[in-house]
Structures are given as structure tokens and as C-alpha cells.
Amino acid sequence: MHKITLSSLNELKNWVGKQLPPSDWQEITQQRIDLFAEAGGDNQWIHVDPVRAAKESPYGVTIAHGFLILSLLSRFFTDTVLIDGVTLSINYGTNKVRFTDPVLVNARVRAHFTLASLEAFKGGVQIIWNVSIEQEGKERPCMIAEWISRRYGAFDGEASQ
């Protein structure tokens, strides 16, 4: 369920420099890791072999792929906010991504989004989010990123930063 609903893209202007409520928690199970490994072709043992990871990994368990955690950004965002009047949403890319702490199997993670800037373009707005992914029980974030998304729909505004 969305934590906040904005009536339009224009309401985003009020959020520049502010943090949205955190997303819902997502559990990173071995099944989720295995499915991601299958989809992406990254079957490195540290992700998919719990027996070997217990013996040889410095973590004692398997860990999630960093790109699995990155791929959850859209899910986390959908949990957090609904913007009425948006006709299309796309991931436009990232400027920076750092995987700062491994995500252990069965950990729970959630995202914190801070709106860094908006830039109007014909048909919508380009949004840069500063994102921090938190692993439950740990102080250090497991991922930080500067994520760019585009939302199409009515937007009356100039670029803001």
C-alpha cells in the first residue's frame, strides 16, 4: 500500500530536498536470490550455494546479488508513493551506485528516497532520487544510489534543485 499519494507531478516540487517515508520491507530469501541468478546468469557460488557459502564465505551464508537489490528500486518506490496523473513511468538510469554492505540471505531490506531534483521536459519531468537501502539490524546502508526516473504527465514547472 502506498504510504503517500500526490495529486499530481506538480506536488513533487514540495518534496525537493525532503525524504519520503521509507518503503515496505522486502525479505531476500534464497529462492529470490536463485531466481535472480537464473534470470541474469550470475550463478556464482557465494549467491547460490548455501553449503559452500557456509564453509568458504566470510559471511557464513549466501549473499544477494548487488544488482538484485538495485532491481528492487521500482518496487520500493511503488510501495512508497503514488502520483496521480502519471501516464507512464520509466527508469532512466543511475548516475552513481555503490554496494556498501552485503545483503545476507533472509535479511530484510527497505529503501529511503530523497528527492534531489526535478527537470521538466516535453511531456513530463525527470526526477533524480538519492536512495539509500537499509538492511534490517545494520547501521550501514547496503546500497546507495542516485537514481533517475522519468514520469510522463502534466507538469507545470521549471527545473528545481
Describe the structure in your own words.
The structure is a single chain. It is built from five helices and seven strands. The protein has 161 residues and is an alpha+beta fold. Strands 2-5-6-7-4 form a five-stranded antiparallel sheet. Strands 1-3 form a two-stranded parallel ribbon. The radius of gyration is 17 Å and the shape is elongated. It starts with a strand and ends in a 9-residue tail after the last strand.
Number of strands: 7
End-to-end C-alpha gap? 29 Å
Uncertain regions: pLDDT < 50 for 5+ in a row? none
User: Approximately how much helix is present in the residues?
Assistant: 10-25%
Strand order of the main beta sheet, please? 2-5-6-7-4
The largest β sheet comes out as: 5 strands, antiparallel
The pLDDT mean sits at 94
Spell the H/E element sequence.
EEHHHHHEEEEE
Q: Give me the secondary-structure category.
A: alpha+beta
Q: What characteristic shape results from the CA principal axes?
A: elongated
Share of residues in strands: 35-45%
Radius of gyration, rounded?
A: 17 Å
Task: State the gist of this model.
The protein is α+β, with helices and mostly antiparallel strands. The protein has helices at about 30-40, 45-50, 50-55, 65-70, 75-80, and strands spanning about 5, 25-30, 80-85, 90-100, 105-120, 125-135, 145-150.
